[in-house]
Amino acid sequence: MPNLTFSAREVADPASASSQCAVIPLFSDKKSLPAEARAFDRAGDGAIKAALALGDFSARKGQTLFLPGAGGARRMLLVGCGQAKKFDRAAMRGFCADLYGALKKTTAGNAMLHLGALGLGKKEACWFLAYLARHLTTADYRYRETLSEPKPALKLTRFTVNPGGKVPVRAAGKALKEGRLTGLGINDARELANLPGNICTPTYLASAARKLSRRFDAISVSVLEEKKMRELGMGSLLSVSAGSRQPAKLIVMHYRGGRPGADPHVLVGKGITFDTGGISLKPGAKMDEMKFDMAGAASVFGTLRAVAEMNLPINVVGIVAAAENMPGGGATKPGDVVRSMAGKTIEVLNTDAEGRLVLCDALTYAQRFKPATVIDVATLTGACVVALGSHATGLFANDDDLAEQLLQAGTDSHDRAWRMPLWSDYQKSLDSNFADMANIGGPGGGSITAACFLARFCEEYRWAHLDIAGSAWNSAPKGATGRPVALLTRYLQSQAGDA
Ligand code: BES
Ligand code: MN
Ligand code: ZN
Questions:
Q1: Among 134, 166, 356, 483, the one annotated catalytic
Q2: In b/e form, how buried is each residue of 3-28, taking b as 16+ CB within 10 angstroms?
Q3: Is there a domain that residue 174 lies in?
Q4: Ligand 3 centroid to 331 CA: how many Å?
Q5: Is any ligand 1 atom within 6 A of the Cβ of residue 275?
Q6: 294 and 249, same structural domain?
Q7: Which one of 280, 381, 475, 483 would you pick to mutate in the ligand 1 pocket, going by the greatest count of ligand atoms within 8 A of its CB?
Q8: CATH number of the CATH domain containing 111
Q9: How many domains does the chain have?
Q10: How far is the CA of 182 from the centre of ligand 2 (A)?
Q11: Is residue 177 in some structural domain?
Q12: What is the pLDDT of residues 111-149, one digit of tens each?
């Protein structure tokens, strides 16, 4: 995990502040240099103006240039920002990526960004700083658990921001802190999702939950074993683990940061630690990617970590429905009918539609917590990938306000979702002759019929479903993205009263 910390410190004279790398943003269309750059230029015998005059650096977007030290800085890093009036949030994100790329090339152990040169107002500056800390934290994540040689990462350990009078130091520090903590939650989610299926089993997830509870006083954990789930009537969830040697686990994590008795926000994660499809076996190509089928669960872990690190004054319950979907002598077969905890019977027409089978019982279980809202997160359908690709998470909700709040949280955190319909017209496709419902719908609208299936178990509370099948991982290079930890964390921050 990156060993990078952030702080804000107002310096009276930027050029005299000591740092191993002064980061100086520059716009391409400004007639004169900003005050910060002027100070360094004077201290460095006109090196910045010379680079501009020579044309080596024109401050267009994507351009970075290291220059020798000036004043108290051992080296300078100019970062091109393009046109000042076009410096929107997309440009800010580009800045963060360019900055990480440049910092990776230096041996500097610390750096100081002179924010004033960007001329941002308070709100935009805070957004920028939170995103910056989050981006540097996540860009520097390296998977290493099963590698003999770790891949190189930043040498940098300390990143300081000189707000330059644009933002109060406290606000800048808070933004940096929240961004970093969100980044750590994202990285935790990626790590769990990246682990191979032979390590990351339902039992492993249960121990990861216990580890979280040891780390944070406000988090407590209980794990329901198969015996207990059988007593509760969770025949649907148990039908998924029936073909596996790995016992299913229902992991329940409580974060108690709000007043006792305040209705909790419940997060439910799909935790299929490997999805072979079961008897409805998947084709071989890319089947390895089905180790990511617990990315929803991983995002619940990551979000709880971020929430606990931030000490948010709310109560959150994280439920992870963990199981391995395997073929085997005891496996559920197409046509088998199982009984869910809610009492509804389900005809399992396709054992590869297993996510909804574990989620429906977890969603029924969620009811006992008298939830303010329930949000489930699942790599649920290939159809969602067809519909939305990888940029948007599919959002379904039985409550318009909740949907709106989640969409907003996604926009604010740049971890975006797109709402899909849950119209009752789609429900008919789940009809079965032999059970109360089938576990698959017709050929079209697969992500919608999957959500419709879940909706039948969520009638008692405000509920949203996030289908992250496309957004939770990248195929080239392969790896988990940690989505939608940023969206969920932002949503819960808003619920905690932080607009
Ligand atoms: N885990 C898969 C969904 C998935 C597919 C996620 C591709 C990411 C990439 C899920 O369990 C599944 O197999 N869904 C089936 C449902 C179908 C049988 C109705 C699917 O999408 O094909
Ligand atoms: Mn499946
Ligand atoms: Zn699956």
A1: 356
A2: ebbbebeebeebbebebbbbbbbbbb
A3: no
A4: 15
A5: yes
A6: yes
A7: 381
A8: 3.40.220.10
A9: 2
A10: 29
A11: no
A12: 999 999 999 999 999 999 999 999 999 999 999 999 999
- Please indicate, yes or no, if residue 328 is contained in any of the structural domains: yes
CA of residue 208 to ligand 2 center, whole Å: 24
Q: Output the residue whose Cα is nearest ligand 1's atom 3.
A: 381
Residue owning the nearest CA to atom 16 of ligand 1 = 353
Q: In what order do the strands lie in the sheet with 345-348?
A: 336-339, 345-348, 437-438
Ligand nearest to the CA of 439: 1
HSE, side-chain direction, 13 A CA sphere, residue 56: 11
| Same domain (yes/no): 89, 235 | no
Q: How far apart are the first and last CA of the chain?
A: 29
Q: Please choose, from the candidates 409, 406, 395, the residue with its C-alpha nearest in 3D space to the C-alpha of residue 454.
A: 395
Q: Report residue 426 as tokens.
A: 């789609």
Q: For the residues 162-166, what does the mean pLDDT come to?
A: 92
For residue 158, indicate whether it is catalytic.
Answer: no
| Greatest alpha-carbon span in the chain | 84
Q: Is the CB of 383 under 6 A from ligand 1?
A: yes
Query: Same structural domain for residues 40 and 111?
Result: yes
Residues 66 and 129 placed together within one structural domain of the fold: yes
Ligand approaching nearest to the C-alpha of 292:
1
pLDDT at site 3: 84
Answer yes or no: do 314 and 199 share one domain: yes
Q: Is 356 a catalytic residue?
A: yes
Q: Which of 268, 193, 265, 251 is nearest to 482 (CA)?
A: 193
- Cα 139–Cα 292–Cα 400 angle in degrees, nearest 5: 85
Q: Is 308 left (phi over 0), alpha (psi -120 to 50) or beta?
A: alpha
The pLDDT tens digits of the residues spanning 401-456 come to 999 999 999 999 999 999 999 999 999 999 999 999 999 999 999 999 999 999 99
Do the Cβ atoms of 253 and 213 come closer than 8 Å? yes
Cα(353) to centroid of ligand 2, in Å?
A: 5
Of 57-61, 164-168, 276-280, 470-474, least confident by mean pLDDT is: 164-168
pTM above 0.85, yes or no: yes
Q: Whose CA is closest to atom 8 on ligand 1?
A: 469
What residue numbers bound the domain in which 247 lies? 187-495
pLDDT band at residue 1 using 50, 70 and 90 as cut-offs: low
